[in-house]
Write a structure and sequence with these properties.
heterodimer, A: mainly alpha, two-stranded antiparallel sheet, 2 strands, about 65% helix, about 5% strand, B: alpha+beta, 9 helices, 5 strands
Chain lengths: ~260, ~200
């Protein structure tokens, strides 16, 4: 992330070349997206490798966040972490607007632009969040969603080091998001370092705020990999507006 | 099971309006309004506990009690157990359901704690397949509002919810995965699953 910031800050033409290359790779990669096994509940052909990466991620989380032990001191005081999350969230808005436009969705594009304008000014560079108080919430999106809107298949479920669960389509989307993010292209050092720091702080804030929920998945489930895969895919499909199968209790042979 | 089938056939065959005119007083068949009322009452109770100023520990106890009162825990338990319930004796299943009730109410009752400082608002209800879906929005401190759907039915004779779907994440599916994995680890032994469930959550 820091590397790309540096690259783009010094040479905008390079950013454009990156973009073109990314699109060429993109079409090539999506052709190669892994197709689901017929009848399988999840498209997870790399399950064995995914589980290994998942175990390492959990070990790292345990080391950093205490592994679900109560009364572990937070890494960052929560008020500080949340301010950083605000800044990071605000800096994510221009990238979201780019994707809103690529998805031909003007309404969320306007909402996100308005939110960015309010929080960057009245909210002092996004440290505070007056927009939410006015009922203007982020309409979150990313390039993974743009790919979905364009009709790209989801591909296989993947677990990547540090970032955790994703899919082939979403992983590619994350990479493209770094490239097309106007913030990465426009700001230079040392501001880009602050932006990166805010993003890391924001991740810590989220991990701390949802501590109980995350702990219960990672440390209290009988099979944390299976739980995480289910939760990630269900929630992602919800975000993408993919209609989930409705579970009908009158067709359930087991719940008598 | 037979009565469920005939009930569903009836619903499919006879339009709701006609059904109402045939039956003078529909015995207390669930409808959209009643499904909505159930979730309204549940939300009011949760909000009441949040605003009661009780200690967190006392709140957890109240949340657990609310969960047990409004959820069809027996259905959720058996559905989560899946085919393993078929081979078990009635006594084994009953013991399992009892342990599951403690486990699930502790687990999800605790989740209600995240609503402290926030609120839930019911925004709509609609019939869905053979049951009803009530849609609500949760407003939590420092977070964008998010959607919580409640699936309500009256299979047990009482109006109860049997599934909660938070931003697409489905409680029944999560519990099936969880109980399935626990059972695998115990080589399918329901007795051990039951005694371990009693300690969890």
């Amino acid at each position: 992330m820091i590397l790309t910031n540096l690259l783009f800050a010094t040479d905008p033409a390079r950013a454009i070349r990156w973009l073109v290359t990314a699109f060429v790779c993109l079409s090539a990669t999506l052709q190669g997206c892994t197709k689901p096994e017929p009848g399988a509940e999840f498209n997870d052909p790399f399950e064995a490798q995914n589980r290994l990466v998942h175990d390492e991620n959990v070990a790292l989380d345990r080391f950093v966040f205490g592994g679900g032990k109560p009364r572990k001191r937070p890494i960052l005081p929560q008020p500080v972490a949340e301010r950083m999350a605000n800044v990071a969230g605000n800096l994510g808005l221009p990238g979201a607007v780019v994707n809103n436009v690529l998805q031909l969705r003007p309404k969320p594009a306007l909402t996100n632009t308005l939110r960015f304008a309010i929080n960057s000014t009245v909210g002092i560079a996004g440290i505070f969040d007056p927009a939410s108080a006015m009922g203007i919430y982020e309409d979150d999106t990313d390039f993974g969603e743009t790919l979905h809107v364009w009709g790209a298949p989801e591909g296989a479920f993947l677990v990547v080091p540090l970032a955790g669960p994703t899919t082939e389509r979403d992983l590619l989307g994350s990479v493209v998001d770094i490239v097309i993010d106007p913030v990465n292209t426009l700001i230079s050092t040392p501001e880009s370092y602050y932006a990166t720091a805010a993003k890391v702080g924001g991740k810590i804030a989220d991990r701390q705020r949802f501590g109980d929920t995350v702990d219960s998945i990672l440390y209290e489930s009988a099979d944390s990999y299976a739980q995480m895969r289910l939760l990630y895919l269900q929630n992602r499909h919800f975000e993408l507006g993919i209609e989930a199968d409705v579970f009908d209790p009158y067709e359930d042979p087991y719940g008598q | 099971m037979a009565s469920d089938l005939s009930r569903r056939t009836l619903i499919a065959a006879v339009p709701a309006g006609a059904l109402l005119s045939i039956l003078p007083v529909p015995a207390k068949a669930l409808n959209v309004d009643q499904a909505r009322k159930l979730v309204d009452a549940l939300v009011a109770e949760v909000n009441g506990v949040i605003n009661s100023g009780k200690s967190e520990a006392a709140m957890f106890k109240s949340f657990e009690a609310i969960f047990v009162r409004y959820a069809d825990v027996r259905y959720i338990a058996q559905s989560s157990l899946g085919p393993a319930g078929r081979q078990a004796s009635q006594a084994q299943v009953n013991a399992y359901v009892k342990a599951f009730q403690g486990y699930i109410s502790r687990k999800y009752g605790r989740r209600f704690r995240e609503f402290i400082g926030g609120k839930i608002e019911v925004t709509g209800a609609r019939p869905l397949k053979s049951f009803f879906e009530v849609v609500s929005v949760a407003y939590l401190k420092g977070q964008s509002p998010f959607e919580v759907r409640w699936h309500v039915f009256d299979k047990s004779g009482k109006d109860l919810f049997f599934n909660i779907i938070i931003e697409g994440v489905n409680m029944l599916a999560a519990e099936r995965t969880e109980i399935g994995a626990m059972l695998d680890k115990r080589k399918g032994d329901i007795g051990r699953l039951t005694s371990d469930l009693a300690k969890l959550g």
